[in-house]
Specification:
- The chain is mainly beta and about 475 residues long.
- About 10% of the residues lie in helices and about 40% in strands.
- The protein is built from 4 helices and 34 strands.
- Strands 1, 2, 3, 4, 5, 6 and 7 form a 7-stranded mixed beta sheet that branches. Strands 19, 20, 22, 23, 25, 26 and 27 form a 7-stranded mixed beta sheet that branches. Strands 11, 12, 14, 15 and 16 form a 5-stranded antiparallel beta sheet that branches.
- The longest helix is centred in the last third of the chain and has 34 residues.
- The protein is rod-shaped, with a radius of gyration of 65 Å.
- The relative contact order is 0.07.
């Protein structure tokens, strides 16, 4: 009667199957995929089966024909409601091995002594299909990200329970759904959530729980990908200059290295590294950055600097390093100019000293030596090897002029010897004379030679050359 007034409802709760050319279905308001009132399709008309001699062997054939599991119960007296229309079969007797209900013994089609309040029914175990499983985001999942896993099943047995679990058994959760799918959410995943996941679907009928096979498995892998941090260099007193080889900071000025990173991990620490190995300092990350201050720039601060960001997640360490930045320390501009000027002045003084020394040696080599004696004056020019490189040796100029004045005691006369074109000196005051001995045979002459030069040596300086500047003359008369 219910199906007569509500045909759409009966259609929704009807399961059909075809075997040996005869369709079988389970119908009724409380029917499901594998439980309900038994109906067969014959001569293009759906009709019911009477419950006379109806037992579990008959139910087994129906369950097999529908593709369900084992027969649980063979029900009569319109357990799933009364049908309408034709009653096709009565007194059905099956062995349980038949593939179709019409292969069993029966009274014949439409031969019966029943009414619809005797309609037969069955309850079979449900062979639920294998669920499907999917994960979002698919592929790589970052540490701390939210993950969604969806399970679905193709069945009319709704109001079941979905089960999500790992193959290792370390994780298991359930969720009831009134539809044929549900979604499990795992918030802020960590490395403990890694693993292989599977879905299962379970329903409960009046007899027992029915569970589907396990779905295919999916792998949840968690990774940590750190973006490359950045490094910058500033100077509060503007003592920086960007050159082709790096950043130049003026010696004595302060400078600051700042390390930053764009990351979802707000913890961690920055280390400032010099030349790839020496750790200058380590500071915790505050607002995704850290600063390293240098109050006074010195030459020892020169080198290649980089920042290393480190974070510990679920007991595992991860790090990322910045690009290198080269720091050079230079002299202040005023000191640099002063040093250059002083160097130039010293160079000029050295050059002037060399020129003066060369000129002095040349003048000394060319200057004549004048010897004054009591007997006269001798003038000679002495040249060195530099003045005559062709002969390769020192020589004395032959142009020697000697002027002598001899006073004889007692005679009072003067004897003059002249050579070389020089005239006699008119004065005798500059010479010292000695008197002759008593016999008048000899005249002892004391000669004093004085050498006159443009530059006089100091009086206390004695050299071996002074002996060569004097000439003693013993002349016998």
């Amino acid at each position: 009667m219910l199906c007569f007034f509500f045909p759409i409802v009966c259609l929704l709760f009807t399961s059909t199957s075809t075997a040996a050319g005869v369709q079988v279905r389970l119908a009724g308001p409380r029917s499901s995929q594998c439980s309900g009132r038994v109906e067969i399709y014959h001569s293009n008309v759906w009709g019911t089966v009477c419950d006379d001699n109806w037992d579990l062997h008959d139910a087994k054939v129906v369950c097999r024909q529908l593709g369900c599991g084992a027969a649980v119960k063979a029900l009569g007296s319109a357990y799933f409601g009364e049908g309408t229309g034709t009653i096709w079969l009565d007194d059905v007797t099956c062995s349980g091995s038949e593939t179709s209900l019409t292969e069993c013994q029966h009274s014949g089609f439409e031969i019966h002594n029943c009414n619809h309040h005797e309609d037969a029914g069955v309850i079979c175990l449900v062979n639920l299909p294998k669920p499907r499983i999917s994960i979002y985001p698919a592929g790589e999942v970052r540490w701390g990200q939210d993950v969604s896993i969806t399970c679905s099943v193709s069945t009319r047995d709704l109001d079941g329970t979905f089960i999500l679990e790992t193959t290792s058994g370390s994780f298991r959760t359930t969720q009831t759904s009134s539809t044929n799918f549900t979604t499990f959410s795992i918030l802020q995943v960590t490395f403990s959530d890694e693993g292989t996941y599977q879905c299962q679907y379970k329903i409960r009928n009046s007899l027992q729980d029915i569970t589907s096979p396990l779905s295919d498995s999916i792998r949840l892998s968690i990774t940590v990908r750190l973006q490359q941090p950045s490094i910058s260099l500033t100077s509060p007193n503007r003592g920086l200059a960007w050159g082709p080889e790096g950043v130049e900071v003026t010696r004595g000025n302060s400078f600051v290295f700042t390390c930053t990173i764009n990351s979802s991990y707000h913890e961690g620490r920055f280390s400032l590294i010099l030349s790839g190995s020496k750790i200058i300092d380590t500071k915790p990350v505050v607002n995704l950055s850290a600063s390293f201050n240098f109050p006074v720039a010195e030459y020892e601060h020169q080198g290649n600097y980089s920042c290393v960001y480190e974070v510990t997640l679920s007991g595992q360490h991860f790090s990322a390093e910045t690009a290198l930045i080269t720091l050079m320390v230079k002299l202040p501009l005023l000191l640099l100019v002063s040093s250059a000027a002083a160097g130039t002045l010293v160079l000029l003084l050295l050059l002037l000293l060399v020129v003066c020394l060369v000129l002095w040696r040349r003048r000394r080599a060319k200057h004549p030596i004048i010897c004054l004696t009591a007997a006269g004056a001798c003038v000679s020019n002495i040249y060195t090897r530099e003045e005559n490189e062709e002969e390769g040796k020192d020589y004395e100029n032959s142009d020697v002029v000697c002027i002598r004045k001899i006073k004889e005691q007692g005679g009072g006369g003067e004897e003059e010897e002249e050579s070389g074109g020089y005239e006699q000196p008119e004065s005798d005051e500059d010479h010292d004379y000695e008197n002759m001995d008593s016999d008048g045979n000899f005249i002892k002459v004391m000669e004093v030679c004085r050498c006159v030069e443009d530059k006089r040596e100091e009086e206390d300086e004695e050299t071996s050359d002074d002996e060569n500047d004097y000439v003693n003359i013993d002349q016998s008369l």
